[in-house]
Specification:
Blueprint (H helix, E strand, L loop, with lengths): L5 E7 L5 H12 L4 E7 L8 H9 L25 E4 L2 H5 L10 E4 L12 H23 L8 H11 L3
Parallel strand pairs: 1-2, 1-3, 3-4
Helix pairs in contact: 1-2, 1-4
Length: 164
């Protein structure tokens, strides 16, 4: 690993909620050590308004967030990635593209808040629950001594974070 920011990609099928929250959280909480992105295998084309609202309530900027395809991060012209995290079970089960840079990968699946039906209060609670879980995992991730961990040890720790 290097002194430049670590490139991190969060994946989910629709790239409208969990991966967007993860991108914004890591960019805010990462202290400049990380450059986070998000993408989806089948992007919805729009960021879920409850995700935007959750981020605003947490004081996290939302400028530039958009639902996009993972194709933007694959291929010979893409920036090398250091880490790729799936945050939904569907994306974890899909065959992913080959990522440039041979990134470490881990599955950090959580329930989809965008799939919650019912009242706005129920949806807001689902987004809050997802946010709290992602914030805890990102906090654990950013506290790892990345430069001093051996690759296999780091890979194991990343998987453990997905269970936290």
């Amino acid at each position: 690993m290097t002194d430049k920011p670590y490139e991190v990609l969060f994946l989910c099928t629709g790239n409208s909620a969990r991966s967007i929250l993860s991108e914004a959280l890591l960019n805010r909480r990462g202290g400049g050590r990380f450059r986070a992105h998000s993408a989806g295998s089948q992007p919805t084309g729009r960021v879920n308004p409850f995700a935007i609202d959750m981020l605003h309530k947490a004081g996290i900027p939302t400028e530039g967030l958009r639902s996009k395809s993972w194709d933007e991060f694959a291929g010979p012209d893409a920036h090398p990635l250091d880490f790729v995290f799936t945050v939904c079970d569907n994306a974890a089960g899909e065959e992913c593209p080959l990522w440039p840079g041979q990134p470490l990968t881990a599955h950090w699946g959580i329930p989809d808040p965008a799939a919650v039906q019912g009242s706005d209060a129920a949806k807001q609670k689902a987004f809050n629950d997802a946010f709290v879980t992602l914030e805890r995992r990102i906090g654990l991730f950013t506290s790892l001594p990345l430069k001093s961990l051996e690759r296999l040890t780091l890979a194991s720790r990343l998987q453990e974070i997905g269970k936290a």
